[in-house]
Amino acid sequence: MELKLHPYISITEVQTETYLMLPKEIIRKVRRIEIRTKKLVNDVFSGEYHSIFKGRGMEFEEVREYQPGDDVRVIDWNVTARYGHPFVKRFKEERELTVMLLVDASSSGEFGTAQRMKGEIAAELCSVLAFSAIKNNDRVGMIIFTDRVEKYVPPKKGSSHVLRLIREVLYFKPEHPRTDISCALEFLGRVTKRRSVVFLVSDFLSSGYEKMLSIANKKHDLIAIKIADPREIELPNVGFIELEDTETGEQIIIDTKNAAVRKDFQQYVSREKVKLDKGFRSMDLDHIFISTDRSYVEPLMAFFRVRARRFR
User: What domains, with CATH codes, occur in the chain?
Assistant: First the structure.
């Protein structure tokens, strides 16, 4: 059994020395997430994942003459024009897809006023997506980033590999606090040559990434997952509070009893949300909004349903 401690720890079995080297609390978290997300995948997500992703991973096989009932969208107009009657393209489903998880590990993920922090929600979401991919015989890889790429786990198959991904995203200690989404997307372009399904999991408290996001979206099947906390959307009326930007360390004291302060904050957040949504729509980029005070199951299911209708 190979055990490689640097730069990545290889896990070949669930019960390995690798897990014995981890704190017991991390092991318990991995186990809890494994149990919870595996059940969700088996009971809820597996069929939806297959229908909207596997069906899109198609390879051209041949052309044949059009038959009644064929989808007119797959008519090969060049061949049709050459022979004077309609021909359609035939495709075969790719045997496997590559799924890449891009996970924002900047310090803003260490925030949460509801049940869990944003980073914990991100870890569980990645677990659901990774188990869904593995169940459909796809490969899964991960890029963990801050204002630089801090960890790259190449795509592989297998349940033990998924457990490694869960452990990485739970146990990872970033060296840098800030966020640069562009650097992660640039790195993705260098290490992933073939078209892949890419989930970008972040709170999107960053800027200057729009160009790289558009480029990545054209090359890959890219889905943005934004995680937010209720207190990032609306301030409570609790008097003076001290706010700290976890990425820069900047601190400010504000009076939340002041209605004008609360209104200005909410208007700013609303403008930023409209700006983000507008940017996603202009790129025709699929996106999911997740809040830390609610279950992520329904937003994911809603996303699956919309995608399924679109590609029928």
Answer: 17-52+95-225+288-310 (3.40.50.410), 59-93 (no CATH)
